[in-house]
Design brief:
The complex is a heterodimer of chains A (425) and B (250). Chain A is α/β, with parallel strands linked by helices and 425 residues long. Helix content of chain A is 20%, strand content 23%. Chain A has helices at 36-41, 54-63, 98-109, 143-156, 193-202, 228-246, 300-306, 369-375; strands at 6-8, 44-48, 68-72, 114-118, 135-138, 160-166, 171-177, 203-204, 218-219, 256-261, 266-271, 285-289, 316-320, 324-331, 337-345, 350-351, 363-364, 379-381, 403-408, 411-416. In chain A, the strands form 5 sheets. A 9-stranded mixed β-sheet of chain A has the order 1-4-3-2-5-6-7-10-11, with helices on both faces. In chain A, strands 12-20-19-13-18 form a 5-stranded mixed β-sheet. By secondary structure, chain B is α+β, with helices and mostly antiparallel strands. A 5-stranded antiparallel β-sheet of chain B has the order 1-2-3-5-6. In chain B, a hairpin with a 5-residue loop joins β2 (105-118) and β3. Chain B is globular, with a radius of gyration of 18 Å. Classes of the chains: A alpha/beta (425), B alpha+beta (250). At the A-B interface, α4, α5, β8, α8 and β18 of A face α5, β4 and β5 of B.
């Protein structure tokens, strides 16, 4: 998981965590497999949104004493938060980080659970941040992170459970996106034009020029207008669906939407399906380890071959990590254009040797700052990267690449350094 | 001090300055200056035929168009509309110099438009042509992007404009706080024309939406008599070009 997360630990000399085992209350579910306890012991879940609904989900996960929990929320408590947030006293923790607050509570409830918090927006996390989890729980009011998480989970093949509610109609909906393939539904598949309009309204940017890598979009929306019991019902039903999936209880919740309507006490289960016109990229990455010790030792040709793609066809493309761009040529201070053909981190200068020999190893830059931004390739195709296809990535600038995406049409393989949880290839 | 100007044709179309201001604040002009001016003419866009050169550019770019199916078809459609806009616009107003659909859509455009600049000695000058880099990211299909994510000014250098940052590499041109999901390239180009010619401009540095060059914004507040740099609509030939043509005819 990403370094962006802070690992939460119990304060030394502070209040001791609870050491009661889950088995003291966990029932023997009828028809459940024998290894339910083991499955829960190994369960790793990320929760995006730690507000009225997400906080409830996290408390449930803590009480199940799962192996690892990641919490993502850029929000702060408001004066009214205690009206809908479970286990939050009025006036306490005002303006404090929601993610850090609940993470500390989770750690106290379940000291053996590894707890990681990220006090920021999901779009700021590396693209593979959810690569090692078994499921992502989504409980946010904002549509932009919803689309972003949906896309990431689809790429990585991670199940996504989305809990949402509508206060005025007192309806709770739980969507379970299985992400078994690129043809699975994603949250954006169900969007109407009203939702796209709302998405536009909710997103604002600062004028600091950030976009590539870490956008500074701020999703703005009204606070959750609901009652605490509807919020907790959404959290409870989301957990029901997660546990049905993890522990194989009854009918699989994959690709379903569970809806509870308060007014007529009706529960409806409908199937989710992909919208053929969904603008999201409905492609699933196969995941594989680097064929060499590290990705820096691998060549692009080698990776394409390991992925089962031939580089003879120009449509093989490569995306290196979250920040590397490919620069084909630069302009030396002497005014001469020099082919450079290497990767460089965003906004970093590129070092090379100019043919003019004015300086033995002078610093060179792309033709102009404008060109640098315009000409740099975030994803580079084999035809453009031809000069470096057979050179190890570490020798062409991508020295600490942590992942490489190799893609041909709608097939994609994500190569990573180190060991992952074995999902995919 | 808050100054907003409005394109004369947009005014004819019934848009008040307040409306233009409010749409700018919302990040995307419902009818940008150029679009307002060109609204009627744009109706012919779909029926425009491509010249041989532009048809070749299109075919070559489409043959190297990669990415997901949705993005591939979108990029091809956007490029086609840009090329048709080149055909529709007066001679030399807009030319596609280069286009690449292999990754995101990248189109290098030459645009006949007045561009405010300040040379090395600090002298204010207006150039008559800009080379723009238009970028259409895949992310633009699924989430709003900031207004400066689409257009960079490749030439001239040292643009002196409240919506063009000198600090951020690449001379990005800000078209608003954010652009909605899936904006149309034609709208982006027309908005760029409106912004560069200062037919639609934001120069209030205290506005929460913000400007990208505060010094330039303050300078323009002192020099509002220069705004707009041209009131010629995008689909109208430039006055200079008309004078030249008349001279030739004589």
């Amino acid at each position: 998981m990403s370094d962006a997360f802070v690992e939460i630990s119990l304060p030394p000399g502070g209040e001791a965590g609870c050491d009661v085992a889950r088995a003291a209350r966990l029932p023997q579910f009828i028809g459940a497999p024998a290894d339910v306890a083991v499955r829960l012991d190994r369960l790793k879940v990320a929760t995006v949104g730690a507000g009225s609904v997400g906080r409830g989900i996290l408390l449930h996960l803590a009480r199940l004493q799962v192996e690892r929990i990641y919490v993502v929320d850029p929000g702060r408590f408001k004066g009214t938060s205690h009206l809908t947030h479970p286990q939050l006293l009025p006036g306490r923790e005002l303006d404090e980080s929601k993610s850090l607050s609940i993470s500390r509570l989770v750690k106290q409830l379940s000291p053996k659970t590894e707890v990681y918090a990220f006090d920021g927006g999901v779009e700021s996390l590396p693209s593979t941040a959810f690569g090692d989890v078994d499921a992502v729980m989504l409980a946010t009011d904002h549509l932009a992170p919803e689309v972003e998480i949906g896309q990431r989970c689809l790429y990585l093949g991670v199940p996504l459970v989305q809990a949402s509610l509508d206060g005025p109609t007192a309806v709770v909906q739980i969507r379970f996106f299985g992400n078994n393939s690129g043809n699975s539904a994603c949250p954006a598949c169900g969007y109407t034009s009203d939702e796209w309009t709302l998405l536009n309204k909710q997103t604002r940017f600062s004028c600091d020029g950030s976009f590539e890598g870490s956008p500074s979009a701020q999703s703005k929306g009204a606070p959750t207008m609901s009652t605490s019991f509807l919020c907790s019902l959404a959290a409870d039903l989301a957990m029901v669906q997660l546990i049905k999936h993890v522990c194989s209880l009854g009918v699989s919740p994959i690709e379903t939407m569970l809806e509870y309507s308060t007014y007529n006490h009706r529960t409806t289960l409908t199937r989710l399906s992909r919208d053929e016109h969904c603008p999201c990229d409905h492609v699933q990455f196969r995941r594989a380890q680097a064929p060499q010790a590290t990705l820096s030792d691998c060549t692009l040709a080698e990776l394409a071959c390991a992925a089962g793609f031939g580089t003879g066809r120009s449509e093989v493309s490569f995306t290196i990590g979250d920040r590397f761009v490919y620069v084909a040529s630069v302009l030396c201070e002497c005014g001469k254009c020099e082919e450079i053909n290497r990767f460089t981190a965003d906004n970093a200068l590129t070092t090379g040797r100019c043919a003019c020999k004015a300086a033995p190893a002078q610093r060179v830059e792309p033709a102009s700052p404008a060109l640098r931004r315009f000409e740099a390739h975030r994803t580079v195709h084999s035809s453009i990267a031809q000069p470096i296809l057979h050179r190890p990535l570490g020798l062409v600038g991508a020295i600490d690449a942590n992942c490489v995406l190799v893609r041909q049409g709608d097939e994609a393989v994500l190569f990573e350094n180190g060991v992952h949880n074995g999902r995919g290839t | 001090m808050k100054v907003r100007t409005i394109d004369s044709r947009a005014r004819e179309a019934g848009l008040t300055a307040g409306e233009v201001g409010s749409t700018r604040r919302a990040g995307w002009p419902a009818r940008s200056a150029g679009a307002g001016a060109a609204g009627k003419g744009l109706a012919r866009l779909d029926s425009m035929k491509l010249s041989d050169r532009n048809a070749r550019l299109y075919e070559e770019a489409v043959s190297r168009c990669h990415g997901s199916a949705a993005f591939r078809s979108r990029k091809a459609a956007e490029l086609l509309s840009i090329l048709k806009l080149c055909e529709l616009a007066p001679s030399r107003r807009l030319t596609v110099l280069n286009c690449d659909l292999s990754e995101m859509m990248r189109v290098t455009l030459a645009m006949e438009v007045p561009v405010p600049c300040r040379d090395a000695g600090g002298e204010f000058t207006v150039r008559e042509r800009a080379v723009l880099g238009l970028m259409y990211h895949q992310e633009a299909l699924i989430r709003p992007l900031p207004g400066h994510a689409f257009v960079v000014i490749l030439a001239p250098a040292n643009v002196w404009h409240a919506n063009v940052s000198l600090e951020i590499p690449g001379q990005p041109l800000c078209l608003g706080e954010s652009l909605p999901v899936g904006p149309r390239s034609v709208e982006i180009i027309l908005s760029s024309y409106g912004a560069l010619s200062m037919q639609a401009v934001m120069i209030d540095e205290a506005d929460p939406v913000g400007v990208m060059n505060i010094e330039a914004a303050k300078w323009w507040q002192q020099n509002t008599h220069l705004i707009p740099l041209s009131d010629t609509a995008f689909l109208e030939p430039s006055k200079r070009r008309e004078r030249e043509s008349a001279k030739e005819r004589r």
